[in-house]
Amino acid sequence: MRLSRPLAVAPLLVAVAVTGCTTNQPPSGIVTVTATPPREPVTATPETSAPVSSTPSDPETTTAGAARKKLPNVVGINLQAAQDLLQERGFYLLDDQDATGRHRLQIYDRNWVVVRQTPASGRTVTTDTKVVLWAKKYGE
Q1: How many CB atoms lie within 10 A of CB 70?
Q2: For the chain, first and last CA: distance in Å?
Q3: What are phi and psi of 9, to 5 degrees?
Q4: N or C: which terminal CB in the chain sees fewer CB atoms within 10 Å?
């Protein structure tokens, strides 16, 4: 009779079966609770009597406290000088765009020249109007 051989293999199979059944889940009966901090209440702010601009580039509407100034012509000058001039005049909401349509970033502004601006120069707009400067690299 050879019964000793199957009995020697049986403990190995039981050990593999037990180690293969372990999981990383908590035992049943334990509940995991995650606490979320309470949100701060939202308070309403009083509205001002001045109308708020829904489109910043519209010269007919004004934002409370924004001055109205004539937009200087910056077409034909380098991008850095154009930004400096507009900021001297009180226009700080500036957006630079690649005029070639390749969506390049103007990393070194002195290498770019302004070829178009929006809104057009000469218009009287509020100083919080978004001014878009379309530029391309020198030599393009």
Answers
A1: 11
A2: 95
A3: -80, -30
A4: N
Whole-angstrom Cα distance, residue 98 to residue 135?
Answer: 5
| Distance of alpha carbon 71 from alpha carbon 74, whole angstroms | 9
Q: Are strands 112-118 and 131-137 parallel, antiparallel or unpaired?
A: antiparallel
Give the pTM.
0.54
- pLDDT reported for residue 121: 93
34 vs 20, 24, 30, 96, 135, CA distance in Å?
30, 18, 13, 45, 52
Residue 17 pLDDT greater than 60, yes or no? no
Alpha helices by DSSP H, the chain: 4-20, 79-88
